[in-house]
Amino acid sequence: xxxxxxxxxxxxxxxxxxxxxxxxxxxxxxxxxxxxxxxxxxxxxxxxxxxxxxxxxxxxxxxxxxxxxxxxxxxxxxxxxxxxxxxxxxxxxxxxxxxxxxxxxxxxxxxxxxxxxxxxxxxxxxxxxxxxxxxxxxxxxxxxxxxxxxxxxxxxxxxxxxxxxxxxxxxxxxxxxxxxxxxxxxxxxxxxxxxxxxxxxxxxxxxxxxxxxxxxxxxxxxxxxxxxxxxxxxxxxxxxxxxxxxxxxxxxxxxxxxxxxxxxxxxxxxxxxxxxxxxxxxxxxxxxxxxxxxxxxxxxxxxxxxxxxxxxxxxxxxxxxxxxxxxxxxxxxxxx
Length: 336
Ligand SMILES: CC(=O)SCCNC(=O)CCNC(=O)[C@H](O)C(C)(C)COP(=O)(O)OP(=O)(O)OC[C@H]1O[C@@H](n2cnc3c(N)ncnc32)[C@H](O)[C@@H]1OP(=O)(O)O
Ligand SMILES: O=CC(=O)O
Ligand SMILES: [Mg+2]
Known about the structure:
Pfam families: HpcH_HpaI. With 336 residues, the protein is of the alpha/beta class. 54% of the residues lie in helices and 13% in strands. The site of the ligand O=CC(=O)O has 9 residues, from helix 9.
């Protein structure tokens, strides 16, 4: 098995490595297989959202809301946040604010992050460069009280953003150490991206293949989830299934959806299959087995080291004793 091949070459007595592996712990992981947008000004749809089995509900202030309804959306979502999570169901309770360049983002953040309850996650659309992350960090630090933090999902939706992507992620990861957010995912905003590069959408999405792959690559390099593009034709469930499975094969961990009917198909596509689960369980078992062996061998190594030290010290003592005895004999001889 692959893992045993790696472990075979690991130095058993490398204490730094041992210390590291001994400390491996299970990370707090929020699944976001389907990330469903719900227009923030539509109370009927918001109520409907709480009844669904969906990993992430994104209460939207951005593109799902008309410009003359922005204020209504902001207030509606703030009221929901004031009341607290509407159900005991486990799901990611998220808000999508307007983009920084729209001039509406600060009002959204102030209204939503000073409510009685914080959302779990903030979705920040149209991030273009690291300065946007710095701005976001500064704003949320002034709104969130105490030691609370929100998770951050960064949207990449333009040519410039795609070029700046590693820089954006590096800044977010570094800032998160001192700021009130933790970056957790990247979203590929394919609709806005197509508009940005002037691409024409086709059935198989070849025109955005490079960008779609680059997003996964950079997300994984920074330990982030990768959330795939929206399938706008929400009545075409067969097409959705094919595109979701393709995204999953590419390494995406989830997909944006706009309609409740899309949820079960997407969540199924991003669930690991039986083969993958078997592989992961095998990997974990092999890891545990090797850990046990290391414990034994490290114990023996330490015992050996102690014995060797003891040996060395007694040899040294005997040598000192002989020298001292010789010197003493010499001293007696000289003085007699
Ligand atoms: C590129 C991007 O940024 S995408 C994000 C921006 N776009 C959006 O947010 C669009 C979100 N989606 C929607 O608004 C809707 O799904 C629409 C307008 C596309 C279709 O809505 P409808 O015509 O109401 O669809 P339909 O009649 O099939 O809905 C069935 C039920 O699901 C509800 N529903 C539909 N979409 C949603 C949703 N996104 N969230 C919650 N509930 C929803 C409807 O209210 C309806 O509920 P009801 O049975 O209690 O009346
Ligand atoms: O925000 C999503 C998009 O596709 O644009
Ligand atoms: Mg967009």
